[in-house]
Amino acid sequence: MDSHMTENPVEPGQHGHGEPLPWWKRWVFSVDHKVIGIQYMVTSLLMGLFGFVLMIFMRWQLSYPGKPVPIFAHLMQQVFGSNMAPGGVMTPQLYNSFGAIHGTIMIFMALVPALFAGFGNYIVPLKLGAPDMAFPRLNMASFWCFFVGVVIMVASFFVPGGAAKSGWTSYPPLADLADSGPGFHPVLNGQTLWLLGMAFNITGSLLGTINMITTIFQLRAPGLGWMRLPIFVWSELVTAFLMLLAFPPLESAAVMQLMDRLAGTSFFSPDGLIVGGQRVAVSGGGAPLLWQHLFWFLGHPEVYVQILPTMGIIAEIWTNNTRRPLWSYRAIVYSEIAIGLIGMVVWAHHMYMTGMGQGVTTFFQIFTTLISIPSVLIGTVFLLSLWGASIRVNLPMLFALSWLPLFAIGGLTGLPNGWSSSDLVLHDTYYVVGHFHYMMAPTSLMALFAGIYYWYPKVTGRMMNDFLGKLHFWPTLLFFNGIFFPMLIQGMNGMHRRWYDGGAGWQYAQHVLWLNHVMSISAWLLALAQIPFIINFFWSAKYGEKVKSDNPWQATTLEWATPTPPLGHGNFPVAPTVYRGPYEYSVPGAERDFLPQWEPTAEEKAPAEKVHV
User: Which residue ranges traverse the bilayer (predicted)?
Assistant: First the structure.
């Protein structure tokens, strides 16, 4: 193969001259993109588990309001105090804290870091044939900013008054005033810590996006042109640009809200606020709607920040297991770019109820509807790629196949929220929660699991157990729908999303209250269904079946050209050259049903040999 040798390829855990790295540089403050990817992934999975546990307790409260949480009642009172959890009963304040932190963690500290930073850090440089990320130390700093944000957010449960209670959106003026006054520390209180945690999290994200964009632009292997990039790399690139444009406004808003709370400013506090019968002593003149614009300017692109990497993961697994190219590679690339562009101008469809004018409403309705076109096109390409394919239904493909219908449900149920006339009825009901969670939970998590099962052998050198994987898949698929589909029914019946008693106090909700039990039982069974995955994840790292080659899935993209696991800094023993597109499967006349990007055919090898001569 015509390639260029790397100078002194570095073994894992060594400096460039071969001396061993101390463990704290190798595994804690590492600058190796693969270790940082693992750090992001493990931290994100742990935070996802923590956010899931919060939801488990919330589901008990919604189904059995006012009753002590079984088994954990005494522990809850000990941890949260008799004011927040008397006798193990969840108070409205504790329910609000759980809801705010559950939403914040699952979006900003679990799913997005895992899908973008976890997979992106580990896989993207390998797919590019790169030795590392463009800025290794910046990469390390991005993780530690993220980790500090995680610690602050979790620690907020243990300050007087507990964690933030103003929702994961932190709407002012409530968020400007919450957790303040007698009994609250000016800084060490839930709402202020929420803002500090988000500021660190966003800073880490911005450092990561700069690194990702530079790496993709500058460190591609020879021959790896733009239209030879794997779809996963395109997904990460578009996602990085979305984050780079959308995150700074929210970080600015978080700083302004911190100033409102700590420095007496009133960026978001309007004139004439009356709290406890007394006028609030602020200068006034602020605009709560300004926060909503700044928040949703990130908040809606954030949906695509989460979904775009899943499309990339699914594309990799889909092509590998259909043993054929995508029906239209370019259609997916251009559709993802279109999603990125249109996704920046649809944020205010979250704000129809604020009284915006008809002209502005029409603008956001049009673009909200338009963004469904590239999304549908991507789903159609995936569906048509199945036609006539020899499908291998292995563990990654099972999860990838389930992604498409879940994505379709999430997308289709979102259309009524994008039109102001129907949103007037559905706004702030459980219909919105059901739609939103279909996109953010089952759709994202099924792709996350698919990616873990697919790249696990490259990371560890061992396969995950097939039986435990199927024991994980089928109940997970069933109970996801058991949780979120009934929400759509409740929402169509007018069930409000913020009632901490699950609607028990609302007369017109009585005929759909039984669905609370269906959703809660599904949630608890979903928790049990994750036990096989947890066992499989750790057990297989030591006892799983060893891979028989560096390319166990017979794939075509560059990450499968590395040793298993990949080398330390440098990744490749020989720098690869790319000869073709990413998905050359079932090529007529080829000896095998796949042509890897890095292997030249006889015709491609001959000119290279002449050059050497």
Answer: 35-58, 100-123, 143-163, 193-217, 229-250, 303-319, 331-350, 362-386, 398-416, 436-456, 468-489, 521-539
